Amino acid sequence: MHMNYDFDRVIDRSESLAIKYVRRKAVFGREDILPMWVADMDFATPDFVLEALRQRLDHPILGYTFRPRSFYQAYQRWAARRYGFDVEFDWLTFSPGVVSALALSVLAYTQPEERVIIQPPVYPPFFETVKGLGRQLVVNPLIRDGHGRYKMDLDDLKQKIDRHTKLIFLANPHNPVGRAWSAEELNGLARLALDNDLIIVSDDIHADFVYSGYKYTPIASLSPEIARITVTATSPSKTFNIPGLSTSVVIIPDTELRERYNEKLNAAHLWLGNIFGNIAFEQVYQKGDAWLDSLLQYLEQNIDHTVQFIRENISSIKVWRPEATFLLWLDFSGTGLSHDDVKDKLINEARLGFNDGRAFGQQGENFFRMNIAAPRSVVTEALDRLKRIFG
Questions:
Q1: Where are the domains of the chain?
Q2: Consecutive 10-residue runs of the chain (391 residues): their mean pLDDT?
Q3: How far apart are CA 276 and CA 292, in angstroms?
Q4: C-beta separation of 203 from 171 below 8 A
Q5: CA–CA separation, 335 vs 218, rounded Å?
Q6: Which of 104, 108, 161, 245 is the one with CA 20 to 30 A from 7?
Q7: What are phi and psi of 103, to 5 degrees?
Q8: For 314-366, what is each residue's pLDDT tens digit?
Q9: What is the structure's pLDDT at 1?
Q10: Model pTM?
Q11: Which pLDDT belongs to residue 297?
Q12: For residues 307 and 293, is the Cβ–Cβ distance under 8 A?
């Protein structure tokens, strides 16, 4: 491990108003919970980011600022370097967050009552955004193969598309099931979208968390034809643990789609961004490779440790090793307990704060999501508690 990157350091976040900590009582009904739910990491933001922000604080005015050309170029170079994805400068636009970009896309590309497809079990804001903006939610659940690996059900998807269906939300890589979709799978989805005039809006925020043997394929990289129907939203916020800086980038190759998106962005006055987000974004995409490579190694060891521990010690919990993300999707159906009983035991006996699988759709019944992006001592403590109650 590189001497500057101490991922073993346990940092007290309760004083920093971290949602994961201050919302424990509201979400779980008690304070003494080990929080492994909100998908941010319990690691320090890289030093070089904090240093750049401190330097900016030496200037006495925090006024309106401009995003320089170098802001977008930093992402362009990162995408080329890390994913082999050639992004043209003109394709790039802004959003405060990936979910804001999903919402702006719904407003830009659909009318009230038109239909948007999602693939649960999936990140809860996918549901909330569609319903909250008065669109019809169409559910195309993922299916599992004999090995417990999730796949897209394109036959079901085909049945569910009608002339009122305009958009599909994609999670690539997928949260919570941890799939790094293959080019072949993405192509299958894209062909259906092309045949039916659907726009694909892809949430790629976990793009940087892909483990040995797998790769992240941006759907827009498959072909110019596919790129023309895609909107991809991403951000360094998960990768470098800076989600509080509300700074994301949106890749829209098609000029008309981009103009429609930007109209909504400007109408909501969300284009401005914030000084510190702009600085951090550029810093991490310019200087973050070595830090990220160390982090990925650490996370992969956390995943190996967790998967092995559960398989050896807690036969009632099924765990599938994720290809991507720092989230584990744990299946408690083997405990023979109801979902509510498992939840009660997790909270009140194990005192563990996991995400309730039901928030990801009814396909999350008997599942709970565990965030392993924490110092190994914290992950080990969580596993010991799980074993005590379910082992």
A1: 14-46+289-390, 63-286
A2: 77 91 95 96 97 98 95 98 98 98 98 97 98 98 92 98 98 98 98 98 98 98 98 98 97 98 97 96 98 98 98 97 98 97 98 98 98 98 98 90
A3: 20
A4: yes
A5: 38
A6: 245
A7: -65, -45
A8: 999 999 999 999 999 999 999 999 999 999 999 999 999 999 999 999 999 99
A9: 41
A10: 0.97
A11: 97
A12: no
The amino acid at 383: L
CATH 3.50.50.60 fits 14-46+289-390, yes or no: no
pLDDT at 4: 67
Hey, what are 41's tokens?
Answer: 């990491």
CATH class of the 63-286 domain in this structure: alpha beta
Tokens of 224: 């110019």
Q: What is the CA radius of gyration of the chain?
A: 21
**DSSP collapsed to 3 states, the chain:** CCCCCCCCCCCCCHHHCCHHHHCHHHHHCCCCCEECCCCCCCCCCCHHHHHHHHHHHCCCCCCCCCCCHHHHHHHHHHHHHHHCCCCCHHHEEEECCHHHHHHHHHHHHCCCCCEEEECCCCCCHHHHHHHHCCCEEEECCCEECCCCCEECCHHHHHHHCCCCEEEEEEECCCCCCCCCCCHHHHHHHHHHHHHCCCEEEEECCCCCCECCCCCCCCHHHCCHHHHCCEEEEECCCCCCCCHHHCCEEEECCCHHHHHHHHHHHHHCCCCCCCHHHHHHHHHHHHHCHHHHHHHHHHHHHHHHHHHHHHHHHCCCCEECCCCECCEEEEECHHHCCCHHHHHHHHHHHCCEECEEHHHHCHHHCCEEEEECCCCHHHHHHHHHHHHHHHC
pLDDT of the residue at 273 = 92
What is the crossing angle of helices 275-287 and 69-83, to 10°? 30
Amino acid in the structure at residue 8? D
Q: What's the rounded Cα separation, in Å, for the pair 221 and 223?
A: 6
Q: Which tokens hold the place of 71?
A: 């802001």
